[in-house]
Amino acid sequence: MNKRLQSINIPVFQTDLLEWYYLNKRDLPWRREPNPYKTWVSEIMLQQTKVDTVIPYFNRFMEKYPTVYDLAKADEQDVLKSWEGLGYYSRARNLQTAVREVVDTYNGEIPNNEKELASLKGIGPYTKGAILSIAFNQPVPAVDGNVLRVFSRILQIEDDIAKQSTKKEIEQYVGEIISHQDPSSFNQAIMDLGATICTPKKPTCMFCPVMEHCQAFQHGIQEQLPIKKKAKKQKIKQYVVLLIRNDQGEYVIEKRSDQGLLANLWQFPMVPLDEVGIDQIEQWMYDKCGIDLQMESDCDNLKHTFSHIIWEMDIKKASTSQNFLNKDSLMFIAKEEIDNFPFPVSHQKMMKFL
């Protein structure tokens, strides 16, 4: 056994953790009548999103796409619309691509082995472990940020958890500690522990079911762990966003590229200020988009933060006498119909100015 694990009585640790979980587990919709599809959808939604935010989205999504077959045959724009506001939209596109493969290749049965599951788009080591352990009750580690934090404290790991080598090391330890009797509950118990007790700041150790096993607590350094190097500073991009209205009261909307950030979502036209001066916007829009417009009033400024980039946006009204557009990615749309299209959160916030 690894030296770090010698300090832990593994059977007692498992019992303490699981007994706590059976009494205190959070009532989450994907835990009621669980199946592999629900587990998969919930885990994809929960990536980089808080549980409270996910719950209503999950319920609506399951109502609309109750099986892999429903999601596989759905129109991508409808799926993106259902995801609208959750962010990280590539998760939704990858999920649908993978679900289509499950229908085509595996007769609608989600694979229950590591190799086939890992080959599906958007399923990384954590999601794979979560599906195999939670849905198929296999003793496979599922190591996310919560789990890294909990085990860096329990085992007093003082290496940077942002490093791949540290994640691998912790994954290996979880693989040795996980309950073989009830791996599904074990992994969910660690997630709940990290979410409710072993929190990033001010963990409530006195309520922790595995406090007596925790090396960091014994040495009084639980608040110093985990060690994580700061992410790179985000780049700032400045835009003017144009709410362009024609004489019919229709607005110009634009479909983003099918690759990269916010792929295939709709937005109001954005003019990059690192390429274009404020006084050149009308000319740039004519040259790039074939829209002859007149700038009008200023509406507001908005800032939107992504993991790697910050958009600073000046929202301005503009008008055009055109009724037709010559670019495939652009269209005129009546104000009442805008709700039918999936927009990123930043652009939804602009709709009050229409």
From TrEMBL:
Pfam family, one: NUDIX_4
Cofactor(s) needed for function: [4Fe-4S] cluster
Domain of life of the source: Bacteria
Name of the protein this chain belongs to: Adenine DNA glycosylase
GO MF annotations, alphabetized: 4 iron, 4 sulfur cluster binding; 8-oxo-7,8-dihydroguanine DNA N-glycosylase activity; adenine/guanine mispair binding; metal ion binding; oxidized purine DNA binding; purine-specific mismatch base pair DNA N-glycosylase activity
Keywords: 4Fe-4S, DNA damage, DNA repair, Glycosidase, Hydrolase, Iron, Iron-sulfur, Metal-binding
Record keyword DNA damage present: yes
Organism (species): Oceanobacillus iheyensis (strain DSM 14371 / CIP 107618 / JCM 11309 / KCTC 3954 / HTE831)
Family recorded in the similarity comment: Belongs to the Nth/MutY family.
Cofactor: binding comment: Binds 1 [4Fe-4S] cluster.
The EC number(s) this enzyme carries: 3.2.2.31
Database matches in PANTHER family: ADENINE DNA GLYCOSYLASE (PTHR42944:SF1)
HhH-GPD domain mapped to chain residues: 45-196
NCBIfam families: mutY
GO biological process: base-excision repair; mismatch repair
Function recorded in the entry: Adenine glycosylase active on G-A mispairs. MutY also corrects error-prone DNA synthesis past GO lesions which are due to the oxidatively damaged form of guanine: 7,8-dihydro-8-oxoguanine (8-oxo-dGTP).
Class of enzymatic activity (EC top level): hydrolase
Reactions catalysed, as given in the entry: Hydrolyzes free adenine bases from 7,8-dihydro-8-oxoguanine:adenine mismatched double-stranded DNA, leaving an apurinic site
